[in-house]
Amino acid sequence: MSKLGWVELETLSTEVAHLRSRIEAARASRNYGKARLLEGEMTELTERRNRVLSDITNGLSDGPPRGPQPINPPVQQVQPEQADEIREPTQEIRAVASKPPLTTDEAGDLTMWDKLTSADIEHVKRGVATRRAEMLTRHAHELKSLETEQSEIDAIEKAIALFTQKFKLGKSAEVLVLDAERASAQAG
Question: What was the pLDDT predicted at 132?
């Protein structure tokens, strides 16, 4: 499994956590339709996350053994007198010998972990496209709610303007002091 699998797993885990909080918010606001829709998304996302996790764990179990691997193990020289003692290699040795040798770079990392296939790139592209679509959907919903709030503010502003026109209140409205009126009413 490539490094991209780990990145995708982390991204999916973050998305699952975010989706959980959105579901809780929908339930708190008693928007059960939205909560059901988000729960459906949660099911799909959880299944996708489990598939990625399964791929990673399968990739780990199929991987080479850990630790430094010799590039070219030393070969023992056979003396002519020992030639008759050499026997046919066992099946285990034949199986090991038939596998291609692992190649390493100067740092000792296995190069197979650094390979990037077109399938990996396509997989990441699909993930980015999915996240982009989700983000655009959230953005559209937020814009819609902001437009609704703006229209409410405009309606309140219009009502205030009508009120001030009806009662002829302007920018030069007089301020009445109630304490002076109360004092004169009590004295009289």
Answer: 93
Helices 32-62 and 3-28: angle between axes, nearest 10 degrees? 160
Q: What is the 3-state secondary structure (H, E, C) of the chain?
A: CCHHHHHHHHHHHHHHHHHHHHHHHHHHCCCHHHHHHHHHHHHHHHHHHHHHHHHHHHHHHHCCCCCCCCCCCCCCCCCHHHHHHCCCCCHHHHHHHHCCCCCECCCCCEHHHHCCCHHHHHHHHHHHHHHHHHHHHHHHHHHHHHHHHHHHHHHHHHHHHHHHHHCCCCCCCCCCCHHHHHHHHHHC
Q: Is residue 89 part of a domain?
A: no
pTM of the complete model: 0.32
Print burial letters for 133-143: b (CB count within 10 Å at least 16), e (below 16). Answer: eeeeeeeeeee
Residue at which a domain ends, from 31, 47, 64:
64
Whether 168 has a pLDDT exceeding 60, the answer reads yes
Segments forming the whole domain that contains residue 37 = 1-64
Q: Is the pLDDT of residue 95 over 50?
A: no
Comparing 148 with 169, which gets the higher pLDDT?
148
Mean pLDDT across 20-33: 88
